Please model this.
Amino acid sequence: MIGVDWGSSNLRAYRYGPDGTVLERRCGGPGAAMLGPDAFEPALAAILTGWTDGRVPIVLAGMAGRRGGWREAPYLPCPADPAHLAAAAVAIPSAIGPCFLVPGVSTRRSDGVAGVMRGEETQILGAGLTAGTVVLPGTHSKWVRRTEGRITDFATAMTGELYALLLDHSSIGQVATREPCDRPDAFTVGARRALAAGGIERVLFSARAEVLLGTLEPEAVESFLSGLLIGGEVAALRGLLDGPPTLIGAPALCTRYAAALALADFPSAQILDGETAVARGLWRIGRDIAALRGPDGRGGLS
Model:
């Protein structure tokens, strides 16, 4: 089997052995946001050169299944587990091999707020957790509830997108230096401030004010702002936790979330690598597709 994690800006592919071991990894190629529907198959063929004879099933998670992507894979309402995702996978015949787009997952919470995710569901299922809360930091962070092996509910925080917008298009970014400078001390101050305030509304402008008053160095603004936003996210969503969550994603960003959670009295968050989780999740869903549609997946292509 071949697994593909196709994000908006990146593409990663995994070639598996019969037991699910990843034999080879490749990355590169265009992100899904750069491609029209007719460009996905040629881009995929280029990165999979030498891996397939046209019969190997290919399981794709992420933005290839978005609206306007290769083919839309409609969102699957919660609760969802690997078998549900496999059954709802959209089959695409291609010269490369039988392809299956994993659907995203949707929710409508008890307060009426809707949510969607695409790609994160595969990471969560690959983590092998059966219960508890999983947090996936990123552009649109997800806080996901797991019950008896199923994704039962989730909430989204636009923390990463707000961070980029504020640095690039606000008065806060005007007082920040753009040279990379990791300042854990400034991050901690920002996170403590947002947690104490219960959110960011009353404290966000302080990222600019502190510089103008000479109490925050311009090179520390990025870390301070990150602390404010992540601390505000934890303050807003900590009610979803009944214990330390599992963090899945890039190690550096997860470390910041773990620090903010510790300040909020959740000191034992476990960190899992996002790439490892998505590779395992693709294999798990692909195994269920094979069980439902035959070993080469072609039962879903008739």
